[in-house]
Design a protein that fits this description.
- By secondary structure, the chain is mostly helical.
- It has a single domain (32-122), classed as Up-down Bundle (de novo design (two linked rop proteins)).
- 79% of the residues lie in helices and 0% in strands.
- It has helices at 12-28, 33-59, 63-89, 95-122.
- The two termini are 28 Å apart.
Length: 125
């Protein structure tokens, strides 16, 4: 029997943001204590919040609630970009890490917009 319901693990923006947050974690966990406590904790929290807001929105019942949390993920995404810029300026991440992270963050807005559009079109209320 084929599953006709959308599941969280099939949503592109959730998958990408989930993997990105783990990638960022793997970088930060190797830093010295000062860097971890200042920039690291904030950056991990903001990156984790992208997928967490998508997951929370997915778990909501009403369309407006879902979309509200999907939009929250945009704020977390912008916050993560800010922390990445600071990491670049302070030489905390490599060029390859920077390019990978910024590339992932560049593609997330479109994917989240698609989820919002899908939610608007498919749900009655």
């Amino acid at each position: 029997m084929e599953n006709k319901f959308l599941t969280l693990d099939k949503i592109d923006c959730y998958i990408k943001s989930y993997h990105l947050s783990n990638y960022i974690w793997d970088i930060v966990i190797q830093w010295e204590i000062f860097e971890k406590r200042t920039i690291g904790q904030q950056m991990v929290r903001s990156a984790d919040s992208i997928s967490a807001n998508i997951a929370e929105g997915f778990g909501r019942y009403h369309k407006k609630d879902k979309i509200k949390f999907y939009r929250y993920s945009f704020g977390s995404m912008e916050e993560t970009k800010d922390w990445i810029r600071k990491c670049i300026h302070r030489n905390l991440i490599t060029k390859e890490e920077k390019e990978y992270i910024l590339n992932q963050l560049e593609h997330l807005p479109r994917s989240i917009h698609q989820l919002i559009k899908f939610t608007n079109e498919k749900l009655k209320y």
